[in-house]
Amino acid sequence: MKRAIVVSIILMAVMPVAARAQTFFTVGQEEGRWWFFDPDGERFFSMGTCVTTPSAFYAPDLGYAPYYQNIINLYGTEQAWSDVVVQRLADWNFNTLGAWSDVNLLGDRVPYTVNLSLSGSNWQYGDVPDYWGQDFLDRVADKMTNEAAPRANDPLLIGWFLDNELRWGPDMRGVKDMFAEYFAFPEDAPEKSRWWIGCATATATTWPRSTSCGTWAS
């Protein structure tokens, strides 16, 4: 059931324009080019800013967010700040709230996107989650129920980012490739079993659980 929820949302995102209600943002082709289409059916070129929020940039050493404090000092309330920001975005020809923006404060006036962060991993460290583990499935189900479903009928929602800067190989966050990362999972981890099945399928053999690069458990 949990996997079915995720698949249904992904399929909806790529559904042909004609098959979806025109009260939402859609994606489709016109004259051989792919476009966003707004709820009125007009072509929409999305240009936005990420982290459009009064509550960002917390300073641990200070124990508070200077940016937020400056907003309150200047505007008095978050609502007053948001009124200025909405007008400023329009004046600068921005028409989208990018990821990590305060959509509860601004999303009723500006088209927006949401980053669901389905993996739960810390992008700065490049953590590799167990995508077949129950923790991941529970997290996805929770995100669908508590974040995706309440916004399903919002015409200003452009779409979802499933995650951000996942690590798929060696980079500044780690030297291991995904093969080595999954091989290092605990023996009883669901990801380890799927990894072994994938290796066996790819080589068309019943690859032994002890190899020259290590044992099944290590």
Would you write up a description of this structure?
This protein is of the alpha/beta class and 218 residues long. The protein folds into two domains: 2-171, no CATH class; 176-218, no CATH class. Helices cover 34% and strands 13% of the residues. The chain contains seven helices and nine strands; from the N terminus they run αββββααβαβαβααββ. A three-stranded antiparallel β-sheet has the order 1-2-3, with no helix packed on it. Helix 1 (2-13) crosses helix 5. It is globular, with a radius of gyration of 22 Å. Mean pLDDT is 82; it is low at 1-15, 17-21 and 209-218.
List the topology elements.
Elements: H1 2-13, E1 26-30, E2 33-37, E3 43-44, E4 48-49, H2 66-75, H3 78-91, E5 96-97, H4 103-106, E6 112-115, H5 134-148, E7 157-161, H6 178-183, H7 190-203, E8 210-211, E9 214-215
Parallel strand pairs: 4-5, 6-7
Antiparallel strand pairs: 1-2, 2-3, 8-9
Helix pairs in contact: 1-5
List keywords for this structure.
alpha/beta; 34% helix; 218 residues; 2 domains; disordered N terminus; disordered C terminus; globular; two-stranded parallel sheet
Describe the structure in brief.
This protein has 7 helices and 9 strands; from the N terminus they run αββββααβαβαβααββ. It is of the alpha/beta class and 218 residues long. Strand 6, helix 5 (134-148) and strand 7 (157-161) form a beta-alpha-beta unit.
What is the count of DSSP helices, taking H or I runs of 4+ residues?
A: 7
Number of strands: 9
Briefly note the structural class of the backbone.
alpha/beta
Chain-averaged pLDDT: 82
Q: What coarse outline follows from CA principal-axis ratios? A: globular
Q: What portion of the residues fall into strands of 2 or more residues?
A: 5-15%
**Sequence of strands across the biggest β-sheet:** 1-2-3
Sequence of secondary-structure elements:
HEEEEHHEHEHEHHEE
Low-confidence stretches: 1-15, 17-21, 209-218
